[in-house]
Fold this protein.
Amino acid sequence: MDRTLQDGLIILEALAKSVQPRSVSDLAEQTELSESHVQSALDVFEHAGYLAREPVTGRCGLSLKLWGLGVGLFARLELKRKAQRHLSELALRTRETVHLSVLTGADVIYIDKIDSPEPLHASSDIGGKAPAHAVAIGKAILAFQSSHVVEEIGRHLLAFTPRTINSLDALQHELSAIRSQGYAVNLGEWRGTVYGLAAPIRRADGMIEAAVGISGPSTRLTPEMITLMAEQVVEAADEISRGLGYAGTGR
């Protein structure tokens, strides 16, 4: 690991364990780092918004921004825990690979998955990423984001296959259709021979940051099969949403 990064993490952990704000000299003594190293790291943390300084003493402590990251991580762990039973049931019914994903920037991250038992199946890694505009599970989330988010992502669309959406107008048109039908489809837009469908998951407040979906080889998960399985995927998403406290009835 880079030494500067390692020193920064040591200082961050020292601050996290401190009840009271700390001075540069205190932190240098505890971490056995030079005061210049400590000061440089604190300047970086402060510039990024992770540090708050007392104006009179100059002592510092962690800001609420770091706490917010922890809350976000906890929410994802809670989502994964409450979704597991429904992912398993969906995997049993469809016999295709099931994914649970969240939106991060222009990508989705797979936070859980269950592989298909079939010898030929779609594969991915937990923690892996996919471009949101090119996969069903990403489009299912994007369809319910603000116009600003969609426009920002729409400025930098990469084409992975001849079927990938590569213009903002086309993306907006597709997202409108997804909002109407309640689920998203991917017909070989990221990997040419892999098709999929997904439905959005709502938090208790109705906001959408996650989705559940299935994917499989185009020879098996045909457009006709996607239509037949759509209700099961939407039902799984609705059940997960209710488990998270969402009480609404509309999509």
Observations:
- The chain has two domains: 3-62, 74-243.
- The domain at 3-62 is CATH 1.10.10.10 (Arc Repressor Mutant, subunit A).
